């Protein structure tokens, strides 16, 4: 009987990336080996193995300079669910982050939230994942709705991100997220060169959009902007340069941005809840955070 099986804990080895990606695929998630490498290189990944050596469960931590420690990639293989493995790994992550003086933070799926609430995590921002199918598999979007910001934008259209000074991008992200996360954004810049974009002149950036390739869809995010119209212009620029399915994890509070995404053919896929343990879950500048980098990154 599985409930008496013991599970060995270790750090995830780089040689286990295929097994880790199989857990992602089983859950219907979007991460690739390059995403796992973010946690292996910049954070930590804890793993539990079954008695016959198979990868049964994972959880990752990613420390940020603001003192927030992101917890993510909480995945338990279907065979091993409801045996306390996620809870055990969460406790391990919390122990590690507390030892570093960090506040544990995460963006939870509904199933994950049921695990985290009994551990003391409290709710912050509601987040919505939007998905748009690839152009050839969805009904044509009427021309009038292709780009229709609710007010006439005074900003110039978005330009490729390489035209913007990188320190200004990092500074705008830090103003929205709460700290400089250059090591992460450097990787996203490399993975989103075809569609990454910004609006504004020189150091006076009004917004930017980064993203990355994914297992089943391209992710747009973070999207940081002075206002919702600027965010729409950024997404319009990126949409014109990607032919794959697209996901965007937008803060629920931006209602006009949500309506515009819906008009472009995006559909609501699943909710997430930002949560924190022992700290304020409503951190950061939500007004300028139109979309997060992803639930695993914040
Ligand atoms: C969510 C997930 C990680 C839970 O893993 P798990 O090892 O089964 O969780 P635990 O056994 O530690 O569950 C602890 C408690 O959380 C609650 N819980 C766990 N999964 C739940 C679910 N799917 N629905 C409702 N409550 C759930 C229960 O109260 C459970 O206690 P119980 O089994 O005694 O009733 C796992 O189902 C999974 O990998 N899902 C797909 C990926 C995902 O959503 N991950 C979370 C990302 S934030």
What does this structure look like?
The model is unreliable at about 140-150 (pLDDT under 50). The chain has nine helices and 13 strands. The longest helix has 15 residues, at about 85-100. Strands 1, 2, 3, 4, 5, 6, 7, 8, 9, 10, 11, 12 and 13 form a 13-stranded mixed beta sheet that branches. Strand 4, helix 3 (about 85-100) and strand 5 (about 105-110) form a beta-alpha-beta unit. It has about 300 residues and is of the alpha+beta class. It has two domains: about 1-125, Gcn5-related N-acetyltransferase (GNAT) (Aminopeptidase, 3-Layer(aba) Sandwich), CATH 3.40.630; about 125-290, 3-Layer(aba) Sandwich (Aminopeptidase), CATH 3.40.630.90. Bound molecules: coenzyme A.
Task: Please outline what is shown here.
The chain is an alpha+beta fold and 298 residues long. The chain is 30% helix and 30% strand. Strands 1, 2, 3, 4, 5, 6, 7, 8, 9, 10, 11, 12 and 13 form a 13-stranded mixed beta sheet that branches.
Explain the layout of strands and helices.
Elements: E1 8-11, H1 17-27, H2 33-42, E2 44-49, E3 55-63, E4 68-76, H3 85-99, E5 103-108, H4 110-116, E6 122-132, H5 143-146, E7 159-160, H6 166-177, H7 182-191, E8 197-201, E9 204-212, E10 218-225, H8 228-239, E11 246-251, H9 255-263, E12 267-276, E13 289-291
Parallel strand pairs: 4-5, 10-11
Antiparallel strand pairs: 1-2, 2-3, 3-4, 5-12, 6-11, 6-12, 7-8, 8-9, 9-10, 10-13
Helix pairs in contact: 8-9
The structure holds coenzyme A.
